[in-house]
Amino acid sequence: MNTGSQVSQSTGFLALVGALLTLLLSGCGSSPTVSETDRLDIPDYNYIIGPGDTMEIFVWGNEELSTTGIVRPDGKFTTRLVEDLPASGKTSTELARDIEEAYAEYVRQPVVSVIVNGFVGVPQQQVRVVGEAADPASIPYSQHMTLLDLMIAVGGMTEYAAGNRSVLIRTFSGRQESFDLRLDDLLKDGDISANMALRPGDIVIISESWF
Question: Domain named SLBB: which ranges (predicted)?
Fold first, then answer.
């Protein structure tokens, strides 16, 4: 076993991760802390269907046309009567109306309901955690999601994390800004004032503690 080669590869990987995080942060304006308004504000939003979502299509009075399936990676969905129906980027209501319009050629006054069961969503509505999370992930945003909810979902932080040096990247009207987070205070000390409401598209970067 070439230990020297493994150490070199590990060092190179850490350097690459560090460079990527530096590049991400360099494009963002910085504010020292999240304002009280932003910390507590819960956005109102409509869930947008994305590739990988599992859906049930009900056609009232025509049960034989009802079906289930998964939105393909190309964002399209196939029903019993219509192939390659665009689904990604739409709400369930918008998709139901599109299916009704397509089915009108075959069924008199179709009434369609779309129920989304398995949620993946579009990237713009996901919340991402990178860096020293126990299980870094992209998670579909859900109404009333908080920073604490997100940290529970990713299993907390690794032993190498510097939680109070972590940052939140948030987009406002196409412009990214970064805010300091106090994850150590929240997770280790139970300081609930360090918790905050999240928004679709938020990115949490958990810094590494350098020894």
Answer: 125-206
Distance from CA of residue 62 to its chain's centroid? 35
Q: Using one digit for the tens of pLDDT, what is the confidence trace for 103-136? A: 999 999 999 999 998 899 898 899 999 999 999 9
Tell me the pLDDT tens digit for each residue of 181-202: 999 999 999 999 999 999 999 9
In-domain check, residue 38: yes
Written as six digits, the tokens of 90 are 């739409």
The domain of 149 spans: 27-45+123-206
C-alpha to C-alpha distance for 19 and 26, rounded to whole angstroms: 10
> What are the structure tokens assigned to 31, written together?
């504010």
